[in-house]
Design brief:
Number of strands: 11
Largest sheet: 7 strands, antiparallel
CATH superfamily of one domain: Hypothetical protein af1432
Number of helices: 14
Helix content: 40-55%
CATH class of one domain: Mainly Alpha
Length: about 425
Amino acid sequence: MSSTIAVEELRVGMYIQLDGGWLSHPFPLSSFRIATAEQIATLQGLGLARVRWVPDKSELAGAATAAPVGAAAAGDEAAAATAPLLSPADAQAAQRRVWLAAQRDAARLCERQHAEAAQAWRGALDLVAARPQEAGRTTEALTRAMLEKMLGSDEIGIRLVAGGGDRAGGHALNVAVISLLIGRTLGLPDEAMQDLGVGALMHDVGKIDLPDRFRHVEDGFSNAELGLYRDHVAKGVMHAQRMQLRAGALAVLAQHHEHADGSGFPLKLAGERIALASRIVAVVNRYDNLCNPGTRTLALTPHEAVATMFAQGRTRWDATVLSAFIRMMGVYPAGSLVQLTDDRYAMVVGVNSSRPLKPRVLVHEPHGRGQAVAAEAQLLDLEQAHDLGIRRSLAASKLPPAVLQALDPRPRVAYYFEPIARECAPSAA
């Protein structure tokens, strides 16, 4: 059960729940256990009088459970003296269990952050028609929250998350997350990053005025149908003006289908006539549409999508932006299906842009290994597995059915960012 407590009485170890929601604070989640005095100071600076806390989930050092320091030290020495020494193999296995637990915690954190951001985006979209200015403020607040959570870490990676929710929300978040990471890589200033995030989140807002069947371009569209689809750009600009978005964000809505070679629409702009934020969103928008098209049979794997983007890169996309995109996503983006150099199959689940050839992978273990070993060895960090790498990328149709079922690739590829901790990940047994 939960109760409330004055913010002046908060202590390290208390598990709290912030009722204001994800957008009202800079913390990764709305429910968490206080770990530092700095977090308490941040909470006290939010202007809250009281917050909810859950005693059952809290870990407070109480007088009743705390032993005297000398007794505790003596007990630790006694335990160390009597505890059996672990063999090197057992010590490595224990270290790996700790690493796997940390990876599972990081995955859950990304999943929850993604879900909360998707909910906030949907709330903003629902306000566009009736209360456009409030929709604009909500989108700006969501962007600020994402930037605060993103910019707080020196090293950021991209993790595959469950693509729950509607397709439009998943697409908006994918485009926003990857675009902001590219902007970060290119060193955009704060104001430009804010405009980039707002524009990316709302780049397709004009589609709310289109019938469902015209919201995604399909092969075989007539000229009239193609024109109706392309009209979402002008409708989006109209909504952006009603939302009172800043000029930088509005430019993204107006230009996200323009191409560097002048082959885009609606104005066939080229080169520097297209705003940098628009050039970024154009690349990411195309990538996500290749991975997550309306017809699942046409979907490319993330690796295939990057290869396609690179093949078109000499003319269609801004060279600097495309280079930053490929460098950040890696040769094998999260969601790619691969075969390792020891012939096992795997799915890439996390990428660190500074080590693009050594992602984290979920491995399918061949028959013959013990179930306990197989379960524990599924997640590998190839950066730490010095004698193991990726041999090739594969389409889902090229994997044996049993492998495909075990790896369970997502119906939609969805991403979220995560801070990268450089703790050592011991290789699997």
